[in-house]
Amino acid sequence: MHEIQVIDDPAAAVVALEPMRSRLLSELAVPASAATLAARVGLARQKVNYHLHALESHGLVRLAQERKWGGLTERLLVATAASYVVSTGALGPIAVDPHREVDRLSASYLIALGARVVREVGDLVRRAKDAGKRLASLAVDTEVCFRSATDRAAFSNELTEAITKLVSKYHDETAPGGRAHRLVVVSHPVPRKTDSKEPS
User: Which domains does the chain have, with CATH numbers?
Assistant: First the structure.
């Protein structure tokens, strides 16, 4: 089972986003039969089988094992990943594209960059898996609390200078066998935690 599977096929995205099928995917973190799932989700086994067939035909679940019960064969299915994310590639020509964004300080541009990361890395992971290789990647995730907008601006300037210096030091377009890597640095406010309790 993959940790995360990126869905870039429009039909597979439609199947995964249907509420009952999404619920079945979550239930299939461990192998289960249609009969077991039917009891868990409160649907007839035939209806569950219908949903499972749709999920299996789009590569979202796979056969884990078969068990013989008398003259019958029971199929146990399992999700192909612990979690799924839908790539903008599933949206075709209407997908967000950072090249179409003009304001590089806007939230829209940041979202477009994030969407491109999902699309490109999802494709690279698939290729690496097909080649039996591990994808080399780097991610840094941290928080910084600025005292003021002035400090935030100063931090942005210093970070830009540091990145520019590092890139100029290590970037070499002429290196034989060299491979370009995309570096994306983003910053946004951390969402405030809200009280989810219903008002009394």
Answer: 2-84 (1.10.10.10), 87-170 (no CATH)
